[in-house]
Amino acid sequence: MINNLFADIILPLAVRGRFTYRIPDNIADNVRPGVMVTVQFGSHKLYSGIVCRVHNESPDIKNIRPVIKVLDGTSLINESQLKLWLWMSEYYLCSEGEVMKAALPSELSLNNFKPRLETFIEFPRKYSEDELNEILDKLKKAPRQQEILLAYLRLVGYSTGTEILPISKSILLSESHTSAGILDVLIDKGILMSVSQTVSRIAETDSFKEPVKQLSKAQSVAFESIKSQFREKDIVLLHGVTSSGKTEIYIHLIDEQLKKGKQVLYMLPEIALTTQIILRLKRHFGAVTGVYHSRFSDPEKVEIWKRVAENDPLKNYRLILGVRSSLFLPFSNLGLIIVDEEHDGSYKQHDPAPRYHARDSAIMLAAMHNAKTILGSASPSVESYNNTLNGKYGLTELMERFGLIKLPSIVLANTREAYRKKLMVSHFTPELLQAMDIALGKEEQIILFQNRRGFSPYIECPECGWIPKCIQCAVNLTYHKGIGKLVCHYCGYTTGMPSKCDNCHSTGMVTRGFGTEKIEDDIKIIFPSARVARMDQDTTRNKNSFNKLIRAFEERRIDILIGTQMISKGLDFENLTVVGILNADNLLNYPDFRAHERSFQLMEQVSGRAGRRQKQGKVVIQTSDPANKIIRLVLRHDYRGMFRMQSEERMTFNYPPFCRMVKISIKHKDRTQLNYYSDILGRDLKEIFGKRVLGPESPVISQVQLWYIKTILIKIEREKPPAKAKQLIIEAIDRLEKEKGASSLKIAVDVDPY
Ligand code: ADP
Ligand code: ZN
Ligand code: ZN
User: Fold this and answer.
1) Residues within a 6 A CB radius of ligand 1
2) What range defines the domain where residue 625 resides?
3) Is 259 exposed, middle or buried (0-12, 13-18, 19+ CB in 10 A)?
4) What ligand has the least distance to the C-alpha of 470?
5) Ligand in closest contact with the CA of 246
6) How many folded domains does the chain comprise?
């Protein structure tokens, strides 16, 4: 007798849809939504997937395959996670399997999780004081054994009546300067005992708990305003200038939620930022605070996952600080999600699918838990600010810095004029050098921002203008002096520095433009006694490199820190007074409709690092175009001016937030074939969407890793729900995929491209 039970299963495949399998009787009790199972897919492949539904609707297929094995009797994935996965796959037009791959630490590891065991040493039973003195007296003839016992008593902080306390064997041995052999003698004698215990893989920092700080008047007003808006709205935007004390307000909101027994997710756009905030949070909330990001190893991620899922009040995490992937943790009882620096582009995942926006997904996740969301920023995204005007989000403003310190004063340094007058020293204007000189004289610290890593963005033959390019991508190679090589920032291709020009064979290739590495070199020459460090992708490859650099800067072991956008956000340094933005032009000239908004945010953000305590900071912006409208707005810290200008432009030319966008990227290794197929799709879409289809066109980088790229942009009206339009887009792509030869195309859909 075959039962009538079936399971819909999510498999780690890019194919949209769920897969139905028959549930054999002998495992029927264990197959529940959220459980991981093994099934066969295709002729010989086994996969593990997650059960999302159990039912008795016999599917219309012959020979439906059985579930082979249940991998773990307990549900790994809870109902709200499954809901989020489904929503993401529908909204971002990808498969649930792709969401699952992004969500789980790695395919099977949740089941293969092995706790880490460590050996501990303890008393086999409680000794009376007399007994203990007697033992020590026995041991007088074996001074090294006695030393171990004394070290043990020291480490457990023994006083009469202390309970038996285990001490890590390795710590005991290093403290007593003895060997394992001598310890074994004590164990053989029955004086000490060895036990195995599971330990955490996550390094814990000890901290003393402090009560939360008392809010200032302005902060209290903002705090109350957020709470009263939460009575009617689920989402509130906290627009607070840099250093207005937004983080302290979050801490108060977190405190309330934790006291209510709720979980809180605190999201940041960048790993570097977690370093400082985690300490601030642990100081108040202690061991319930956990961090989650991609730098953790898989076993560490699994442990964090379990500590969020489990209900053990001693071990579980109720406050998670994390980057975008922390959305996928197994929360069961969220009360609040904080999305700090909500405007930040790093919240959007570009590749691979799911191409999700973590801020927008966080809002959905919160809704699934009936939780509230707070979005925070000193310069909110045009989208979010617009949502406060149309009433979707509440708005709370905090326009003064904590301690009533003034926002930094901004100086524009005209590079064009300085070059003409021959006043530039390398890439530095007299204005910037002077400000740095004064700061160094007062032992204050400096940050220099340049949004390019490496030494120079390209090298060139001075005779004929030849520029070395990547052999796989349509981009110039960046010169990295430290390793003496040319590197492609898109595919990682690396080659030696050519000694002569490929084209005209003349020698003496020259470097052009400048990246962080060159700034570092030059600064060391200009300020030989200053301590200089650099923070960018190249100097932060190790797990602890962020911590080390940030700590060194906090402890004033670095005078000048040079970096990319990594140093521009959220960091809070006491003694930092001068910020230099080395080249505002290349931010502003980026060909994207968000380039002006982004430049404003970045400049406002990096400026905000200056002068956060005691005195006003100073920012020097180097630009060849001081009259630029965006730069004028930054000069006045005029967020609303920027918003008005951008939203007018976007309304006129129909860009988000006044429409929705879907971007389709089509790739092929052959340029002619690519043109052929992308034209087919373009024509098809134009028949449906008319003039709202832009392209196909070549993007700025038209080839990456040998794949030629074309993009098509579709604008969808904001007023209607987008599901219908998205369905039509998917159908058009399906039609293209059925064309002869189309299987050699790669097609990617990006909803709300950022
Ligand atoms: P933001 O998040 O808006 O940039 P922060 O919360 O980091 O601002 O606050 C800026 C600085 O002021 C921090 O060093 C913070 O510790 C301090 N600060 C903010 N609010 C208070 C408060 N209520 N009491 C004491 N210090 C505060
Ligand atoms: Zn040449
Ligand atoms: Zn390349």
Assistant:
1) 213-216, 219, 240, 242-248, 402, 572, 612
2) 409-453+516-649
3) exposed
4) 3
5) 1
6) 6
